[in-house]
Design the sequence.
C-alpha cells in the first residue's frame, strides 16, 4: 500500500457537486473518499455508487446502530452500492454480526466505531460510563475481534494499545488527524499524521485540514509526505 492509499479524505461538504470538485482537486493524493452523514442525505448514496463504478474506493461512514434486522438490511444496501468500507457502532456483538450477515459475499470491509474522537472522559461519564476513552476503546476493540469485523475506528492515542491487545490481523483507521499548527475544531483526541502512523494506524481519515485548505491538493500531498516519512 502506498502512502496516498492510506489517506482517506472525509468529503464533509453539503453537495455531491462540491464533493466532486474536492475529489478533482485532491486527485491521486488520496486513496479513499469518505461519504459521511452530511452528504449521505444530500445525494451521497448516488455519489458512492458513481465513484465505485469508476473504480474509486468509497467509505460509507453511516455509523450504523439499530436493531439487527435493520442493520443487516442497511448493510446489504450499502454493499450493493459497491462501497469498500462501512462504519457500524461497535457497542455490542449483536449489531456487528448483523452487519456481517448483511455484507454477504461482497468485498465491503466493516469497521467498528469504538469511541468518537470528539468525546473525552467527561462526555463518557455523561453517557453513564465510568471507563476512560482508552479503556472503552480497548473493550470495544475486543468485541470487534469476537464479532469478526475487519477493523476499528480509533484515535491515534489508542492505536498502539489496540494493536498490542488485539493483534496484527486487522485495520486501524484513525480520524482526529491534525497536522502540526492546525485547528482541532470539535475534536478532543487529536494527533499529527506522522504520530498516528507511528502508533500503528493503517489509514488516516482527514476532513477539515484538507477540505478547508486553500489548496486541498497541496494539503493532502503534504500529509502523504508525512505518512511516507513515518513509514520509513
Ligand atoms: O474534519 P475532521 O478531520 O475532524 O473530520 C473527521 C472525520 O472523521 C469526520 O467525517 C467524522 O465524522 C469522522 N469520524 C470521527 N471520529 C470517529 C469516527 C469518524 O471524527 N470516531
Sequence:
Amino acid at each position: 500500500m502506498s502512502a496516498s492509499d492510506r489517506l482517506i479524505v472525509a468529503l464533509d461538504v453539503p453537495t455531491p457537486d462540491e464533493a466532486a470538485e474536492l475529489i478533482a482537486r485532491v486527485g491521486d493524493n488520496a486513496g479513499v473518499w469518505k461519504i459521511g452523514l452530511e452528504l449521505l442525505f444530500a445525494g451521497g448514496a448516488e455519489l458512492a455508487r458513481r465513484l465505485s463504478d469508476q473504480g474509486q474506493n468509497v467509505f460509507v461512514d453511516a455509523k450504523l446502530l439499530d436493531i439487527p434486522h435493520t442493520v443487516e438490511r442497511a448493510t446489504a444496501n450499502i454493499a450493493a452500492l459497491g462501497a469498500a468500507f462501512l462504519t457500524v457502532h461497535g457497542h455490542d456483538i449483536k449489531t456487528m454480526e448483523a452487519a456481517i450477515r448483511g455484507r454477504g459475499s461482497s468485498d465491503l470491509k466493516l469497521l467498528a466505531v469504538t469511541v468518537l474522537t470528539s468525546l473525552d472522559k467527561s462526555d463518557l461519564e455523561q453517557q453513564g460510563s465510568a471507563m476512560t476513552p482508552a479503556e472503552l476503546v480497548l473493550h470495544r476493540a475486543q468485541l470487534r475481534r469476537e464479532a469478526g469485523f475487519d477493523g476499528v475506528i480509533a484515535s491515534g492515542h489508542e492505536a498502539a494499545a489496540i494493536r498490542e491487545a488485539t493483534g496484527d490481523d486487522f485495520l486501524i483507521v484513525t480520524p482526529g488527524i491534525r497536522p502540526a499548527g492546525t485547528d482541532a475544531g470539535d475534536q478532543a483526541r487529536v494527533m499529527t499524521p506522522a504520530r498516528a502512523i507511528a502508533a500503528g494506524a493503517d489509514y488516516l481519515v482527514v476532513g477539515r485540514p484538507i477540505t478547508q485548505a486553500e489548496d486541498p491538493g497541496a494539503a493532502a500531498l503534504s500529509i502523504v509526505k508525512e505518512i511516507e516519512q513515518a513509514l520509513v
Remarks:
- The CA atoms of residues 5 and 31 lie 4 Å apart.
- Residues 4-231 form a domain with the TIM Barrel fold (CATH 3.20.20.70).
- Residues 10, 12, 36, 61, 113, 116-117, 153, 175-176, 185, 187, 205-208 surround cytidine-5'-monophosphate (CB under 6 Å).
- The first strand starts at residue 7 and ends at 10.
